[in-house]
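Dear all,

This email documents one entry for the complex benchmark we are building for the journal club exercise. For each entry we list the sequence lines for every component of the assembly. Then comes the predicted three-dimensional structure of the complex as a token string, followed by one or two observations. Please use this as the template for your own entries, and keep the labels exactly as they appear.
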Amino acid sequence: MTAALSVASLSVNYTRTTAVDDVSFTIEPGQCFGLVGESGSGKSTIGLAVQGLLTDLRGVTTHGTVTVAGTPLDPSKETGWRGVRGHRVTTVFQDPMSSLDPTMTIGRLLGLVAGSTAESTRWLEEVEIREPATVLRSYPHQLSGGMRQRVMIALALARRPSLLIADEPTTALDVSVQAQILKLLSREREQLGCGVLFITHDLGVARAVCDEVAVLREGKIVEHGSTAVTLENPQNPYTQRLVASRLTLHSDRGRPVGLPEATVVASMAEARGIQDADLERQWTEGSLRWSDFRAEDEGGPRAGAPALELAKVKKSFSTGGFGRRHRKDVLHDVNLRVGTRESVALVGESGSGKSTILRIAAGLEQPDTGDVVVDRRRGEGVQVIFQDAGASLTPWLTVRSLLMERLGNTVTGAGLDRSQREAHLRTALERVALPASVLDAKPAGLSGGQRQRVAIARAVVVPPSLLLCDEPTSALDVSLACSVLNLLNLLRHDLGLPMLFVTHDLAAARVIADRVVVISQGAIVESVPSDDLGAAITSDYGRRLLDAVLS
Amino acid sequence: MLRFTLSRIGSLVIVLFALSVLIFVVSRFGGGDPVHAYVGGNASPDAIAAARTRLGLDQPVVVQYWDYLTRLLQGDLGLSLSTKRPVADELSSRLPATLELAVVTVILSIVIGLVLARAYSLRGRAGGIIRFVLFSAASAPAFLIATCGLLLFFGQLGWLPVAGRTSYGASSGLSGFYVLDGLLTGNILYAFDALKHLILPATAASLGPGVALARVLADGLDTSLRSGYARTARSLGETESQLLRRHGLRNAAGPVLSLLGVQIGMMLSSLVVVEQIFSWNGLGQYLVTAINAADTNSVATISLLLGAVYVVVNTLVDLGLAVLDPRVRLS
């Protein structure tokens, strides 16, 4: 049988960097092959190269051979790719909103590949869209994210390709939709018998759908084998770290997550006042527990007046243009309490109102009715760490200016002289495991993980009375997300910071928070202790979120 | 779409009404006595009083406005205070003159925009030189380009005529657009001559807007050809030219159209200057004459016309945007 895809010694070089370095693999018809790696590992570049989208590009040199369904092709030249790209090989991309032309109806777009309206309708039915006639008349912005991704899959399958490339097809979707889309992809693969190149950073997703995986790092395949063997019993240290970094509902939340990382180890050793090597040993042995850190013994997490209290908070926004304005309720009577030294995670899907609560707690938004009380006795101000740290740091300021700005605006900072302030900044950077040399850098010169740490350092350079985090790890690679979670946990236990952590990820929520509050459609559904999350969640909505976490 | 169109037309009517009120107020109370302009400086008090009654100025303001509006809607634009002829007659030959120039200018701006947008994407030295020359041209005001054009193409080369709309005398055709009349009556020579007269003024007025349109179009195309949906189209096997036709132009056209609406407004005012330079007997020239003669009625009428054109054009732009982008009309 002819392989759906065979890649032989593929290398891709950009002007200064090597994106893909001598990669070879084969995908049989009907097989799902996972290409797993963190950002910058070259996985998406491979996806582009095998559909001939890197041909004749300035500053890109490509070597090797790509054989699609028995046809050998040169990934560096356009010759021969017509009739292959879009026919023998098609792609489902990550973000279905930006991947569909906003000015075309689904019918027109699908008609371009399916040929007739009858065929288009059949394909929409095939991807389980209930009202195909309505959807054919719709524009992308009128559909939900899940529907758009189904349309994208219909587009990709309509020409019955031999190879389907799925490039992070569920990363931009809510968890509950993710499971449905993955199921759909698997079913279609079996029906059409096409090979699937599944590109993902998410080991959970890879485990759920792939027969075979290749782990990619800096353009090289470091480990390759059947999914079960590779992800259960990884041999390569990099794969081991990736696997260890994956959070599940069974991860031990009393200890740091993932494998020890030198910089985080240093910060933690500093906080405990022991040697780095000792701390690393304790971590590896599993004897290092968060309860060993200081602040915990100053009383339970819920003692005393709450750090934040929201009582009967209502909020609505007006939508629609002139003449047909109407108000949409986003929060109904929300009561929420974050105790002193308590960490609470607010979990819900997009549009549930969780970010609005965070914005109200931060004072960025005023509630229509209801009370918001922040206990300001134990720290200075409320600080927020946003999801996109890059965007929250002013690009033309150095890290020193960014941190000084916050320090100078506090009572603590005002009482310090220049050298004391500088010392303060250095301590803050140490806490988030950044070297002091970062002080003179600007955000653009830092990596994504470093920027997120700078954002955290800025928030805690003077301990705030409340720390708010808006999905601070969801844009990060798994290993970086782990170290950010560990750092936040360190701050929480070491400084006793009260935290409100907004996320859609239950696995991350239970690691960082003492209590998980589930929110749906602007109303709080339930509040359960993290220690016993799986058993304690009883609401239908909460169970659905729980089931959607792939285990 | 119907609902959107109706709402746009509704707001158009409201804006036009507000515009007429504004123009009425400014022309009546904005200084300059219409009676003086009508009867001249040395008239007797009796003559002044008679003129006041004749012009309806002794009526209450609301009645005056109502008269003004009803007459306006019947196409009666009132009398020119300086020539005593109906303003409508004065405009009958001048409005087509300006419209012809304006239409050609808009078309030329769009052509320049399209050609330059292509030139913008040229790599290397040629693209750089084109960009440099055009930037310099676009940053020069219309009257400077007009004067330089005259010096070169009339003074030095003698290729193009210097003034007026034709070398043969007014067209006898119906539309008042000389090029069109020439073509309709089969007089090709006449049409060609009228076209030659249009080249310099239209170029002077269209270069600036054309370059601006080109920049916005080139940026829009660049963004749209790098977008996620362009990637999808490529992965579905579309060629670059299919991609440009099906997705690129349409997605890039929105900002270009918005800019065009604004540019047409500015073009109307630059035409006033250009008409002066080329002795183009249109609204612009008439406006200048009317201002000098303190002919408030004519000034008000022309202002109203130009304002109305601007408002209508921008309503059309809004409707065009809605046709291009479903998110505008369906949100």
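Observations: Chain B has a mean pLDDT of 81. Chain B is about 80% helix and 0% strand.
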